[in-house]
Structure formats: C-alpha cells, structure tokens
C-alpha cells in the first residue's frame, strides 16, 4: 500500500475544476456571475475559437482591491459570505470561492482590476495555478477584466472532451442569453472571433424587454406569446409564455428564473407541462421566459454546485400557483379549450 499524503493545492484545484469547469461556457457563467455580483451595469464578453482559445470578460463593477487580487485566485476565498448565517440568506450568485481558483488551475489567467476607491489599477496572472505572486500596476477603468486563455492547456485529457468550435460557442452563447434574460438592467455585449454577436442595451420598459427577448430568442416567439403578471400568497410570477401555436420539437426555449437565477427544477417543469397538457400536441414543447419571485427564506438555492436546482419550502404551493396561473392564461387565449379546474 502507498502512504497517504495531502494533495498539492494545484492538484486539488484541478480536481475541483472538474466540477465547475467542463467547457468554455462554464467559465463564462462563473465570470459573468462575478461581474453581476460586483454590481456591473455593463458586461462585455469576448470569445475566440468557441472560448477555448480566449474568454475575456470586462465589467464596470466595483473592482477588486490590490491586496485582494492574489487572494481572489485562491480556493475557498470569497468576499461574499463570512459565516453560516450569511450562507442561509445569501443573495449573491457566487459564494463558494472556487471559480477563479478552478479556472486558473486549468488555463492561463490574468485578472486586471481597478477598485472604485483606488487611484490605480492592478493586475495578477496565473498559469495553470503557477501563480505570479507579483501584483503589477496596469491601465484599467473602474471595474474588472478577466482574461482566460488556452483552456485545459495543461490537462490534455479534459481538452479531448471539448467539441467543435461551433458547439462550444453555442453553449457559450446560451449562457450569455440566460444572463441577459436574468438582468434587463444590465447591458451585454458578446463577440466571437471579433464579430459582434449580441449587443444589448439596458431595458427601461417592458417594451425594451420584449425587444431583448425577440433578439435573443426569436421575433416569432414574442409575436405568439402572452404576458403573465400574477401575484398571490407571497408569490409573484411574471414573464411571457408562448401560445400553443408556438411550439418546438425540443425543450430549447424554456427559461425559468427563481429570484433572478436560472433554474431547472422538476417541480416547476411538471407544473408548466401540466398547464400546457391539453393545448399542446404530444411530443411538442412549449416556450417560455418566466420569473418567479418569492421570499428568499422560502427557497433554498444552495442545493447544487452549479446551482440549477432549488428546493422550495412549500413545493405544493409553488406548483399549484404556477399551474393555476399558466392554465388560466392559456385558457383565456384559447376559449375553446374546456377549462378543467383540477389543480
Ligand atoms: P465567489 O464568486 O464564489 O466568491 P470566485 O472565485 O468566483 O468566488 O471569486 C472570488 C472573489 O473574487 C469574489 O468573492 C470577489 O470578491 C472577487 N471577484 C471575482 N470577480 C470579480 C469581479 N468581476 N469584480 C469584482 N470582484 C470580483
Ligand atoms: Mg464567483
């Protein structure tokens, strides 16, 4: 038997990276979440070769202090929670302090930041977790730029799992779409191989929001969607649901956000499926962009590292509310549909 030894921090990070970073899209998700957590109102995403060669995210958020820069790349280093109470009431998108450490361990990373109170901007770099401890001054407006190059350059086994440039970019673009649908108040730009793919201005009205959705999803969806806006028992549901005439062969246009986070939840999916049950042909899928808002104490978002699952305190209540609201909305536009009140 071999003797037990503690993993080097570098290897530990690379193992952990396997859970967070599977492909360029995951990197974009983590970095854009960081920008949003920093209060950015403008986020620019640049990608090259599907994000494998380069991902650069520039934001106008609060920035990182000079002395915190090296720390931001260490594992379990976060500014977002301090104790268990914070964890239970966490509002930020991140809090595990793992993303930057993980990404840094499998790429060449540089972080440039100008903290809002500081006079100067500084930069740190890391290459496969061989971190440059040196913090150098640089030129940067208030905010942060994270530049990641050569994803998996030091982990060839993982690199092999990457798909074509087009597939990787599709995943990456999907992440940006979700982010853009989660924050209408933020402007987003996405470029791929120096070509502007999306340029989205902040939205100040429902009209602007609908324009953003038409741009990101399809103009046809917006034409065939009904607006939802319902509040009951401390739950609020708003957004747009596609009419049964707008249906898809795949469930690829279904966006559901709980308190601003995209969610893929069985209970939610079931409630929506049921609401569409007697108006959609078998095997077809509905399209929707929906936002559920409720007291954060009534929902646990801390279930899974990638945070796509949630746990509702009262699942039955949420299920019934979703079903009733959507069933009614769909029934109103399809009066010939017999209304079956079997919630
Ligand atoms: P987490 O987001 O879970 O805290 P990360 O590894 O993603 O962990 O980031 C570590 C820390 O670096 C964050 O807590 C935050 O303080 C800082 N940080 C990362 N990205 C940004 C950014 N774009 N703007 C400001 N601070 C950032
Ligand atoms: Mg983070």
From TrEMBL:
GO cellular component: mismatch repair complex
Gene encoding the protein: mutL
Record keyword Transmembrane present: no
Domain DNA mismatch repair protein S5: 213-331
Species of the source: Bermanella marisrubri
Family, similarity comment: Belongs to the DNA mismatch repair MutL/HexB family.
Domain of life: Bacteria
Protein known as: DNA mismatch repair protein MutL
Keyword set includes DNA damage: yes
Function text: This protein is involved in the repair of mismatches in DNA. It is required for dam-dependent methyl-directed DNA mismatch repair. May act as a 'molecular matchmaker', a protein that promotes the formation of a stable complex between two or more DNA-binding proteins in an ATP-dependent manner without itself being part of a final effector complex.
